[in-house]
Amino acid sequence: MATIERCNGTYRVKVRRKGAPPLTATFTHLAEAKKWAQTTESAVLEGRHFTATEAKKHTLADLLDRYICEVLPQKRASTVPDQARQPHWWKSQHGPSLLAEVTPAIIVRYRNTLTYGRANGTVNHYLAVLSHAFTVVVKEWQRCEDNPVRK
To answer: Would you say 70 and 118 are in contact if contact means Cβ atoms under 8 Å apart?
Structure first.
């Protein structure tokens, strides 16, 4: 539930929902405060609101290591060797970057690097594994808001 308090000419909004951390923001206009409260509350209810700090705490290497340990063993045994090689490539190329720093433009640059000496289908497989890793991060681990590979 959202509450709005007036303090020294500004409006402080607090959004508190069970299962989510409390969120606060300060605004100069009441209309802005109400709009933020409504959109934030609906995002929390739908499970779309994530704090940016989670994406700034974890690196792409952390994501890919966890993906290799938790997700790959659940896949078909015949596909694991290829799908294990692909996250290692992404990790070697862009591993130390924070999740918040991974943008569609960066992925396009690395995709173009992948095209040299590889078939288009292979490049698509590399992108598919990275996309699935980000989908798991968004839906299950909740460490970032969206999948930059989809864009």
So the answer is: no
Domain coverage including residue 16: 2-49
Tally of CB atoms within 10 A around 116:
7
Instruction: Give the total number of structural domains in the chain.
Output: 2
Nearest Cα residue to 67 out of 90, 51, 49: 90
Confidence class for position 111, pLDDT limits 50, 70, 90: very high
Tell me: do 42 and 107 sit in the same domain. no
HSE-CB of 52 using CA atoms within 13 angstroms: 2
Overall pTM > 0.90:
no
The verdict on 136 and 87 lying in the same domain is yes
Domain shared by 64 and 8, yes or no:
no
The alpha carbon of 79 is separated from its chain's Cα centroid by a whole number of angstroms, namely 25
Question: Of the candidates 63, 44, 49, 38, which has an alpha carbon nearest to the alpha carbon of residue 131?
Answer: 63
Residue 56, pLDDT score: 76
Only one residue has tokens 């991974």, namely 102
Q: Contact 38/2 with Cβ under 8 angstroms? A: yes
Alpha-carbon dihedral sign for residues 140, 141, 145, 146: negative
In a domain, 146, yes or no: no
